[in-house]
Specification:
- By secondary structure, the chain is an alpha+beta fold.
- Helix 1 packs across helix 3 and helix 2 packs across helix 3.
- It has a six-stranded antiparallel sheet. It has a two-stranded antiparallel ribbon with strand order 1-2.
- The chain contains eight helices and ten strands.
- The mean pLDDT is 85.
Length: 251
């Protein structure tokens, strides 16, 4: 099998072209547009569908299909009535670190917009995950995740009221929850179990994040324990698949 000399190690093998050489027309056009995006650079304005169709001598529907895939992959983003080249995806480490720390490491300004902060009797399925008896009070903290004011995801945190009794009084919802636990309450994280899957957002989630319902999302489930091994929180975080990637170090 021949490999292009300039192929990036992380790219699809042979640029995704099958050995028989027959590829869908839209995919061939997509590779041409991807090369154009590299020339335009981040923030560059993409030519109109009509201009692209004339340039590559294909139907406009072929252009639309290629652009849809590039949008889903995060290479493009809509800006007003136009389409521009998107910046690189944010890299979030798979570690016991907060969203705040991960975003700041990339030179962006983290933020959060509060959707819900309420308490309710813990249902049985959740009780074992946060280390309480069914019926004991738990907090539910739901926030939209921001980076430089752009909506990136949606996070739901469940934590026993007994561990953080004054969450509604002395916690700034725009700040790091992990920082609050560590600095105000002296709670240190010890370990966590995390599961990752791809999903589509529900209509409510898509509305809160500001994305189309068909956009793939990365869903993280986290069960955390403190330094003494006690269960502490259950987190469900939905990240935009077009704006996030995850990294980890394997020993």
């Amino acid at each position: 099998m021949d490999y292009p000399n300039d192929q990036h190690p992380g790219a699809p093998v042979r640029a995704g072209v099958p050995e028989h050489g027959r590829i869908p027309k839209y995919y061939a056009v997509k590779t041409h547009i991807a090369a154009l995006l590299d020339e335009l650079g981040e923030g560059g304005l993409l030519p109109t569908e009509r201009d692209l169709a004339e340039r590559y001598e294909v139907a406009r529907e072929t252009i639309r299909q290629a652009l849809r895939e590039l949008l889903l992959e995060g290479r493009l983003r809509r800006l007003g009535r136009g389409t521009v080249v998107a910046g690189p995806k944010l890299e979030q480490p798979l570690a016991l670190a907060s969203y705040t720390e991960g975003v700041r490491r990339q030179g962006l300004r983290p933020g959060r917009s509060l959707i819900t902060l309420d308490r309710f009797p813990c249902p049985a399925p959740l009780a074992g995950e946060v280390g309480v008896e069914a019926g004991e009070p738990v907090w539910h903290l739901e926030r939209v995740l921001l980076a430089d004011d752009e909506r990136m995801g949606l996070e739901s945190t469940y934590v026993p009221v007994a561990r953080v009794p004054h969450l509604d009084r002395d916690f700034d919802p725009d700040s790091s929850f992990y920082g609050y636990l560590r600095e105000r309450l002296g709670i240190v994280f010890g370990a966590a179990d995390e599961r990752i899957e791809t999903v589509l957002a529900t209509p409510r989630e898509a509305l809160l994040i500001g994305t189309p319902p068909a956009l793939p999302m990365i869903l993280l489930h986290r069960l955390s324990r403190d330094a003494d091994g006690r269960r502490l929180e259950r987190v469900r975080t939905l990240f935009r698949g077009d704006r996030f990637s995850f990294t980890t170090h394997l020993g």
